[in-house]
Amino acid sequence: MKQLKWAALAALLVFTLALSACTIDRFQVGSTRTESETVEVGNAETVRADVKMGVGEIEISGGASELMEAEFTFNVDELEPRVSYDVSGTTGRLTVEHRRIEGFPLGEYEDVRSEWDLIFNDNVPMDMTLSLGAARGDIDLRGMTLNSLDLEIGAGDADLWLGDSPLRNLDIEVGAGKLTLDMVANWERDFDAEITGGVGQLIIYLPSDVGVIVDVELGIAAIDARGLQKDGNTYTNDAYGESEVTLRIEIEGGIGDIRLEVLE
Fold this sequence. Notes:
The radius of gyration is 19 Å and the shape is globular. With about 260 residues, the protein is mainly beta. The chain has helices at about 1-20, 20-25; strands spanning about 30-40, 45-60, 70-75, 80-90, 90-100, 115-120, 125-140, 145-155, 155-160, 170-175, 180, 190-195, 200-205, 210-225, 230, 235, 245-264. The longest helix is centred in the N-terminal third of the chain and has 17 residues, at about 1-20. The chain is about 10% helix and about 60% strand. Mean pLDDT is about 85; it is low at about 1-25. The chain is built from two helices and 17 strands. The protein has one domain (about 1-264).
């Protein structure tokens, strides 16, 4: 079923790209604006963050003194970001999204700007959902107190750095884009990741001193495994079964390229 899902998604992306030339005129490119926004954590002890970016470029990192410190640059009114935050009990809900993205054509267009720089607090426990349509993302979560991450990539590209956080669960869906995932870190606890791939490209850098097991269930895909032993559809590194910590990764996909590489 998932293979059919990603085949349908690929067809939809191709269709949308074909319509781009017809729909771009609906959106007026104006003067470039840069806006800053700071969100205070308030009484929240944990936060659920939902970040949705249809097109553009986004950078995410830690180190903010408040819950979030953001800077937005854009020149299309529909791509103006909307930020909302409310606290219920001890749980905060933060949403960052475009004002309107429906109908905006995928791809890169000259003179269109949509750039977000989001800096989050390292010490506030957080569950994050990040959805990137045709956006380009640099996502550095090292040092953040992140409990879980759900990441969806449509036709965009993303570089994701993990580690040095209590993150236990990672759920990723990659459509026709490209994801580079760096998992080389001093892992102190077991970790589970589930990755579903479509027609895009997936590159994962893995540690050598922490046990790693990768289970792969694919349709038509090329797998390049460097520094891992293959046993059927399972790949393990030399530290698997020897270290106290184990990283377990499940990959399921249709048509795409996958590279797994152990770094010393």
